[in-house]
Amino acid sequence: MPPTSLFHKTDTLINFTDQQLDARLASRGAQLEIGPFTVNVALKFKNIRDEFIRIYRDYPFYDNPVVLDNTIRIFGRNFYRQYIKPQAFVDVGMNSDFIPLPASMGMVSLEMGLNWQVASACKQYLMFHAGVVARDGVGLIMPAMSGSGKSTLAAGLSYRGWQLHSDEFGLLDMESGELVPYPRAVSLKNQSIAVMKDWVGQVSDNAHDHFTNEYHGTPKGTICYLRPPKASIEQMHKRTKPNVVILPIYDASAKPAIRPITKTMAFFRMVMSSANYGDIGEDAFRAISDIINASDVCEIIYPSLEDAVSLVEEFVANKAGDGKAGGDHG
Amino acid sequence: MAKAITDKNILIRVLKNPELMTSLDASEWNDLLREARISNLAGRLAADAESLKMNDLLPAKVQNLFKSFTYNSLSSARMIRWEMNRVMRALKGSDEKVILLKGAAYLDKELSCTRGRISVDLDILVPKKRIDWVEEKFIAAGWQHQLDNDYDQKFYREYAHELPPMVHPDRRISIDVHHSILPVTSRVSPDMSKLIGDAVKSKSGFYTFSDVDIILHSVVHQFQDGEVRSSLRNLLEQHDMLNEFGKNADFWEKLVPRAVELGLTRALYYALRYTHMIMGTEIPDHVLADIRPFGPNLIVRGIMDWMVPGVISPSFGATGFARWVAANGLYIRSHWLRMPPLLLTRHLTIKFFRRFSMSG
Questions:
Q1: Residue in A64, A65, A95 nearest the CB of B38
Q2: What structural domains and CATH numbers belong to chain B?
Q3: ipTM of model
Q4: What angle do the packed helices B320-338 and B341-357 form, to 10 degrees?
Q5: CB pairs under 8 A between A and B
């Protein structure tokens, strides 16, 4: 049973059966809550609904109308585009024209639409292009560029006991200084798909149920989505203060290593990873300064997911052993 | 009739009476937020709630969204002010007035209509003889032209009232450099030397039009040159400025005579008619009486009364085919007023065929 949201204390969650959820998605839409955001999702294509239900069925859905952050509607614009040569048109309710994808791309259009809504409109939280996970009072931010393996690393940690906040949208509440979980489906690309299927397979008997179909030939190559672990979905309102920043570097030929970096470098990498730093301005500067002051920082270089997870756990354990993690020294 | 239609619109109702925000249910909030986002007025709602100190009375989710809208509009104002600073530096040594237009002018004069406002570009105006000098200075300071299409470049230079838009690659705010408030091909051509002559210097070192001329420019932009479709924000700005400038009795005495002097009476007629009809703007009776003779005949007025409220905001009155007719009628009207028939035919033909070659 998912916890009650922070935002709608009086609102009621509904436990849909798959058939009920399908019917709601096909008609007026279902009010899906992911972390701090609630979105009304309406899907006119059966194949997209099936994938959606597989990934999001354990998330909270609201029954009575609640104030929404966004609406997203995916449909064919006419009879030809709905039934003959199906093309998924994405209406994100924001005056933005999306290039429609073939409906066979399924979840890709939905996930891209949800990404766009958050990336372009969210200014109330400081946003990092980073993998973020938490465990036992440790809030870990891993800022990185696309293709650095941060999604794989965040997902990998989450299937080894960490709480997944997000694989690419780190959010910070600037008033409380806490990281805000936003556990969306994890977007895996190309070779990381097989890596994660194996990784999840090691801890789950029905690993295939955690993944969507693989979509080939997208602008980013092959894409597949992974459902976050159940515990991370249930803890979507559990916030943690950040106190570790690790810059991950994937290099297939490297020897695994933890390398020191200066806090100044970590500060600038956090600034560079933030999509809304410039818009938020002074408050964002202060928030990142506070994070870096409170954090232990390093860079890790690794040739495999297994190595990366060991390095992260080693760094965190040593710092905790020193009594340093979370301290505000430096 | 039009009044009844627009009164149903939740965005208009809340803009006219922001206290309503304290009594909306979730569905009404969703309608309001959707309308406001599409009309680019979300930041305005947040600013109204803030200035009435009623944030604490709103749903927690709305307070959270309003934070986002507020950061957005503050950021927009900061970027425009910084761009003004860069423009001032690039045009140092100008011996002619550099006049801020539209959003930048409102910001510079700290008008009430800038609260919560988002601007994405910066408009300035200089005398026509200075326009090449300004272009050279901008290019020297690193700005670049955005259009590389020959037809677009030529069209701007020959027929428009501005240079093709330029951006500085470090900042990405589009700059439009105008030499007139209407295209050179337009049916009406106000004497720019009068407008420039009356422009006043502000604290920032730039100039802005006089209060009366600022309103007339907004009005012309909306009802003569621009698109009426989804232009609720423009109408709201006119409403705000009429309220703000109108406190000065002098303003009302000058307004209609100045429109007559510049040949902008028809646009002013529509602006006063629709701000009053839609936003409930208080306009002195004698001003309404003075502008009435400049209105169109009853048939045209009837058509405009149906079209304008029907399309000014996304969910007003007209839907489906009726909305399509109204919106396209107003689009063609704005072009009709902008250029002579032969040029219009040529322009729309080129634009039409380009849709096939530029698809994707």
A1: A95
A2: 2-357 (3.30.460.40)
A3: 0.89
A4: 120
A5: 59
